[in-house]
TrEMBL record:
One of its GO terms (biological process) is carbohydrate metabolic process. InterPro entries: 6hp_glycosidase-like_sf (IPR012341), LANC-like (IPR007822), LanC-like_prot_euk (IPR020464). Pfam families: LANC_like. Belongs to the LanC-like protein family. GO terms for molecular function: metal ion binding. GO terms for cellular component: plasma membrane. Keywords: Metal-binding, Zinc. SUPFAM superfamilies: LanC-like. This is LanC-like protein 3 homolog. It comes from the Eukaryota. SMART domains: LANC_like. The lineage of its organism: Eukaryota, Metazoa, Spiralia, Lophotrochozoa, Platyhelminthes.
Length: 358
């Protein structure tokens, strides 16, 4: 068993048709207790701002706003959550403005959904939409839309332009979130498709230049990552968020599906875990069993999101089978000692829930 995770002491479900025994009310109560604990222990400060959505306090605001959308949240609790979220969002916006005024923002700060100001803008849109302050909502929505031209050139960052943290995949994911949240298109499909084209061409060009066995391949800081955070499967997931693009481009549709099947083929039957990067592919190059990475950033925890999305799009049973294999890996190895955060913790429970509804 990996030294990175706690051993799972619970029995497997013997009947796959058995319903979940945890009630929505219990789950909501746990979520509320967790978010209140976050509010209490992570007040706005320069230290807790660092990392923005990924590791900063603005991610707590996002979580709170997501909770408030559920119908079974009492109105009084919803008001408290919105007030706390507003406090965090406005603190983050002030910090961004101070950095901008002092010219301390680099290109990554300006374009990264997880590590920079775009993630704060998305959270601000979510907040002001709920507060019915449409002037403020539209201000930050427009700011996010205006970033689109920056993601259309072939090269944005020398270290890699397509992954989730700072690249095109992250920007597209932000568009999908905002479309879902606002119920509005707000950005033309033609613009989205041009960014998807850039992702596809980048992957084709890299794969050809480096003689990759995979139809699409990308590198980040010289490493051909395969996971959701910096790698291939996160990029595929972003493309699959826009089915209209795949329907309008049969070559893209084929490339995405062939790439998914390639990733399934190189996943170890012993661990059921997607390798972290191409330099770990093959029996002689695998990580030792005690050190495999079952995170959102790397491995099965993030991969199941892409396979679930693929199954919903194409109804190919191979993707559903891979969801099962990933879910089993996460069930056995997904409770990590590193903590209950998106990359290494609570996301594992979310992904098991994702599989249960496929």
């Amino acid at each position: 068993m990996s030294v990175r995770c706690f051993q799972n002491p619970y029995n497997d479900v013997t009947d796959p048709r058995q319903p979940l025994v945890i009630s929505p009310e219990f789950s909501m109560q746990q979520a509320l207790e967790c978010i209140q604990n976050c509010f209490k222990n992570c007040p706005p400060s320069p230290r807790t701002f660092d990392g923005c959505l990924y590791t900063g306090y603005i991610g707590i605001a996002w979580a709170a706003l997501d909770i408030t959308r559920h119908a079974n949240v009492p109105s009084t609790v919803r008001s408290v959550l919105l007030g706390n979220a507003k406090h965090l969002v406005e603190a983050a916006l002030r910090s961004v403005q101070e950095q901008s005024n002092a010219r301390r923002m680099n290109k990554e700060d300006c374009l990264s959904i997880l590590l920079g100001q775009p993630g704060i803008w998305i959270t601000a849109v979510m907040l002001y939409q709920q507060l019915n302050d449409m002037e403020q909502r539209n201000r930050f929505l427009e700011a996010y839309v205006n970033l689109a031209p920056h993601f259309q050139p072939e090269v944005i960052f020398q270290q890699g332009s397509d992954e989730y943290f700072i690249g095109r995949a992250g920007y597209l994911a932000g568009v999908a979130v905002l479309r879902s949240y606002t119920g509005e298109q707000f950005i033309a499909d033609s613009t989205i498709h041009s960014i998807c084209d850039a992702i596809l061409q980048s992957g084709v060009n890299y794969a050809r230049a480096h003689r990759s066995p995979c139809p699409l391949m990308y590198a980040y800081y010289g490493t051909e990552y395969l996971g959701s955070g910096h790698g291939l499967i996160g990029i595929l997931f972003a493309l699959m968020l826009f089915p209209s693009y795949l329907r309008s481009n049969p070559a893209a549709d084929q490339a995405v599906q062939q790439t998914l099947l390639y990733l399934i083929s190189i996943t170890s039957p012993q661990t059921g875990n997607l390798p972290c990067a191409m330099d770990e592919v093959g029996p002689q190059r695998q990580r030792p069993d005690s050190d495999i990475l079952v995170h959102w950033c790397h491995g099965a925890t993030g991969a199941i999101m892409a396979y679930a999305r693929a199954y919903l799009l194409w109804k190919d049973e191979r993707y559903l089978a891979e969801c099962r294999r990933c879910a089993e890996t996460v069930w056995q190895r997904g409770l990590l000692k590193k903590g209950p955060v998106i990359a290494t913790g609570s996301v594992s429970a979310y992904l098991l829930t994702t599989f249960s509804v496929c």
